[in-house]
Automatic annotation (TrEMBL), chain A:
Belongs to the bacterial solute-binding protein 2 family. Residues 32-62 are annotated as: Disordered. Its main location: other. It comes from Planobispora siamensis. Residues 62-319 form the Periplasmic binding protein domain. One of its GO terms (molecular function) is carbohydrate binding. It is found in: Cell envelope. InterPro entries: Peripla_BP_I, SBP_2_dom, TAT_signal. This is Sugar ABC transporter substrate-binding protein. PROSITE patterns: PROKAR_LIPOPROTEIN (PS51257), TAT (PS51318). Residues 32-50 have a biased composition (Low complexity). One of its GO terms (cellular component) is cell envelope. Keywords: Signal.
Automatic annotation (TrEMBL), chain B:
The keyword Cell membrane applies. This is Sugar ABC transporter permease. GO terms for cellular component: plasma membrane. The keyword Nucleotide-binding does not apply. It is a multi-pass membrane protein.
Amino acid sequence: MSNPLARRGFLVGGAVIGAGALVTACTSNEPAAQPTAAGTQPASPPAAGSDNDQPGKQITMGFSAPAADHGWIAAIAKNAEATAKQYSDVEFKPVEPTNDINAQISAVESLIAAKVGVLVILPNDGQQLNQVARQATEAGIPVVNLDRIFPDKLSYRTWIGGDNYGMGVAAGHYIGKKLKDKGVSNPVIVEIQGIATLPLTQDRSKGFADALKTYGFSVTAQQDAQFTVETGNEVASNLLQAHKKIDAMWNHDDDQGVGVLAAIKEAGRNEFFMVGGAGSANAMREIQSGNSVLEATVTYSPTMASSAVRLGRLIAQGKGMSDLVENQVPQSITLASETITKDNVAQYLPLGFES
Amino acid sequence: MTEARGPKAHERSPAGAEPVDPARPADQASAEAPDAPPADEHLRVEAQSRKPAAPPSPLARFGQARHLGLVLALVLLAIVGLITQPESFATTSNLVNILSLASTIGVITVGMTFVIIGGGIDLSVGALMALASVWATTLATQSYGPFVMILCAVLVGTGAGLVNGLLISYGRMVPFIATLAMLVAARGLAQRMSDRKTQLIQQGNELIVELSTTRVLGLPVLVYIFILVVAVGWVVLNRTTFGRRTYAVGGNPEAARLAGIDVRRHTLMLYALSGLCCGIAAVLIMARTTTGSSTHGDLYELDAIAAVIIGGTLLTGGRGTIIGSILGLLIFTVITNLFILNGLNTSDQLIAKGLIIVVAVLLQRRSLESRT
């Protein structure tokens, strides 16, 4: 390996994943390899994973993801490619990203025809891409399913993704605890969702409501935006009119959050605090500034793409995760959603994605 | 009354049509038929094109009948708002909010009205706005300061509009196809330029954001820009040769050509005008959201077209008003506002919007049939 930083990044990242899928949302992006950032990770003995980093059997890795019309997905593609480039034994074959289900199916078919060693797929829709993932598996190509899950376990070797329900729970706990401590009774809690028809949005909202319920609170108003800055702005400015006094707000997505924050500034409101979602660099800078209504954000980190590429490589080379006793990579890994506040933001900032 | 003005009927027809009883449309038609063709074809075509804009109904004195319908719809919505959310709907801040929300797409709607009256259609407006907003917020552009950013947005919008116009007028492409191609390409270019990221307005260029945060007499500056664009658009459409030619070109391009109007050049200018409006809208969306992004203005083309159609503009061209389009747009904006104030679902909102479009077009057809 010509790049010692990258190698250290792998060691820390791999060790943390192995340590148990609970604190893994922030692994492995390049800057994590900086000693300052890495030093704050839970200390794990890197020795166990050391030889996983050595060049092994030469493999080709196919990669297919939706077209990035959003900062998060853009970060997914970028992370995957950057991680793959760290390994001399990985030939990375990304296919043209697309938002068209049909096009993604034929892209994956072309990768199957090219007989790649392993496939990393973030499907546009798990249901609709299931069939082609199944084909790949039957052709003997292990599939690493990234984030949006295939309904059929026969279709993939390993799933790695974020925890949408957990994200809602994290946001709910932050808001619930803070309001409880303040002694607010009957608080006005506003929720701005992403695209309401997606299961991931429904999971987030359910987690949020469930966590709030433990404090005896409930969501006062809920409205959906489209994950874009402009819709976030429109929905937020209307919601601010609907509720003259708000106690807390959870916005599902930091990218649309830029528009939400603009609407809040425009309305000159600051009587409430806001929690974001996903963990964009921009939101983190806002949290760090300390004078914004945005006090916290709960992660759904695109670093999972880096982890997926690493897992794909290990699977193709028949290696296991060094901190686990098992000889093979586990079947599913759910990343935990972490809460970033002013206190720990410095540690997460290098992992934030530019939305 | 009309007969008394016999010799000058062809010149006075728009005014002369006013008192005619709407119950006797046939009389109106026959009264015009014997008109000798005037020596000046150019004048005649323009006069004729002006005619449909003149309402034949007695309600004309209060504004056109279809506008009255739109105003009634708005009043109805306001009543619904007052009943369901008495303490938050009729507040100044909510009204300001509705106007600011309408501003961005309102500016686009003005350009769209011109294009549709001129017999065309522009599907690329949302994408052009996104492209202009991205182009104006690249780090390179931002380093030159806010004025260059505004200039950049306006130039990009106008330039892309010119390309649309060239393809349609000189390249003889169908407007639907040419602007559809522009929609796809401009979105793609915007994604490429921004690397699919959201581009924030940097420190030092807050002047643009201040367009939405600074208030003059209680209204954000961007609302004044919107009003100014509407006012200029109204004057151009109703009080200038350019406006009359737009009606003429949209109503009957062949007649307009025979009358000496350079139809191709006029079409070119219409699309450039629409592009210009997209550029201005890009500045407003940058002000509102503090960003430029390739996701801005998604499906704006459909909202703008719907507002124009509800406003009584014929999709086939030749007839329409700016005020109608703006009223149509306000109806949409108020509906969105009402739904969110009442905490209702977006899906229901879409259904409501769809129904309104259907009802508006049915009414439009009826009023059209009663007139011919």
